[in-house]
Amino acid sequence: MLAYARALLTGSEQGRTAYLAADLRDPGLILDAAELRGVLDFHRPIALFLVAVLHFLTGADQPRALVRRLLDGLPSGSYLVVSHATGDQAPPGVGAIVETYATTAAPLVLRGLADVCRFFDGTDVLDPGVVRLPLWKPDTPPTDPETV
Fold first, then answer.
1. What are the pLDDT digits (tens) for 124-142?
2. Which of 14, 33, 53, 99 is 20 to 30 Å from 39 at the Cα level?
3. What is the DSSP string of the chain?
4. So where are the chain's domains?
């Protein structure tokens, strides 16, 4: 995958992209990486996307502290985007999925909405706030918000 990504990540100065193979549990390595410093302008706001990754960090990994360390390393005005599997209103069968992941090197940790909101402590959360994905800026409102 890394070789494929590197082949795809060549482009013009306006469209430069970097790929960094790193462990999210080492935010210092990420923030200091030459690959990032060569592409991102740390004098301007940066968007940090932690999509479909935080639910693979256990409490022992201290995920909120990791997010805070990454945010603290970014310029003022930067943005944080998070998606996270949650146990709130979980569909039937999700317990079996969690059990399956528990047998792997990356267990699935379902956090509740209140816990997910804590990743944003110390930030200004934009409207509509921390909500379930179908409720975030929907083109059309869901027919039954209890089922999304």
1. 999 889 988 888 776 776 6
2. 53
3. -HHHHHHHT---GGG--------TT-HHHHHH-HHHHTTS-TTS--EEEE-S-GGGS-GGG-HHHHHHHHHHTSPTT-EEEE---B-TTPPTTHHHHHHHHTTSSS----B-HHHHHGGGTTS-PPTT-S--GGGSS-SS--S-GGG-
4. 1-40, 46-131
User: Token pair 């082949």 is at which residue?
Assistant: 7
d(CA 52, CA 117): 15
* Residue 24: per-residue pLDDT: 95
Q: What angle do CA 52, 2, 20 make, to 5 degrees?
A: 65
Q: Which residue has the tokens 């960094």?
A: 20
